[in-house]
Automatic annotation (TrEMBL):
It comes from Micromonospora acroterricola. NCBIfam families: fkbM_fam. Residues 37-196 form the Methyltransferase FkbM domain. The keyword Membrane does not apply. One of its GO terms (molecular function) is methyltransferase activity. This is FkbM family methyltransferase. SUPFAM superfamilies: S-adenosyl-L-methionine-dependent methyltransferases. Gene3D superfamilies: Vaccinia Virus protein VP39. One of its GO terms (biological process) is methylation. Keywords: Methyltransferase, Transferase. The keyword Signal does not apply. InterPro entries: FkbM_mtfrase, SAM-dependent_MTase, SAM-dependent_MTases_sf.
Length: 243
């Protein structure tokens, strides 16, 4: 529970951070939009999407996190919590849990291998495994409708999530890490094949884009390859619609 408590304390109660997040997402999330928050954790981005007037489907596999989400949004009829891991297909998923830092729990064995011994990751321990339900983006679209924006933050499982999508959407984001740069390149290739056309990047938890304007996939892939290891992580944003 202490890891979850730290997450709640880190992500809630900072009005300046919330205002910056809302301003950052406002061009991507319009009032009345449907948003999928895939890897919702304890819902800090979910909160921003709701403040912007969106209806949100929050997808999160960790029972403690979904319990917190349901408690936080119990009176909000425009939030739907789905307790599942999103991936390439439906069915059971093995989740590796980091009890001390649950935000980096993962369904990706490759992520665990990449983190092992990597600078900045030495103290991270995935100390438990649980079996969770699995769903796909296509399944979520069929159940809830077509989202205007999808946020994907699933610790190395991003390409699997995108493999469960068979059509372009207006916009989405996926997390990348510098310990798995090839994975980000695979995601960019997959999105291009699906029909996404322009891309950009935000580094770390910064509420600003690192690039001037939206770029072709190849330019973003080159930018990610050139990042120093210490950049650690960020998010790639993809559009299949004009600004």
């Amino acid at each position: 529970m202490s890891g979850l408590r730290r997450s709640l304390e880190a992500y809630y109660g900072d009005p300046a951070r919330e205002a910056a997040m809302d301003a950052f997402y406002a061009p991507l999330v319009r009032p009345g939009d449907l948003v999928f928050d895939v890897g919702a954790h304890v819902g800090d981005r979910l909160g921003s999407f709701r403040r912007l007037g969106a209806r949100v489907v929050a997808v999160e596999p960790q029972p403690l996190c979904t319990r917190a989400l349901r408690a936080l949004y119990a009176d909000d009829g425009r939030v739907t919590v789905v307790e599942a891991a999103c991936g390439a297909c439906t069915g059971p998923v093995r989740l590796h849990v980091n009890s001390a830092n649950p935000t980096i729990s993962t369904a990706s064995a490759g992520f665990l291998q990449a983190a092992g011994g990597a600078g900045g990751w030495e103290d991270e321990i995935w100390d438990a495994e649980i079996e969770v339900a699995g769903t796909t983006l296509d399944t979520l679209v069929a159940a809830h409708g077509v989202p205007g924006f999808v946020k994907i933050d699933v610790e190395g499982f991003e390409d699997a999530v995108l493999a469960g999508l068979s059509r372009p959407l207006p916009a989405l984001s996926f997390e990348f890490t510098t310990i798995e740069r090839d994975l980000a390149a695979h995601c960019l290739d997959r999105l291009t094949r699906l029909g996404f056309t322009t891309f950009t990047v935000a580094l770390g938890d910064e509420m600003a884009f690192a690039l001037d304007g939206w770029r072709p996939a190849g330019e973003v892939a080159a930018y990610l390859r050139a990042l120093p290891h210490e950049a650690n992580s960020g998010d790639v944003y993809a559009r299949a619609r004009p600004a």
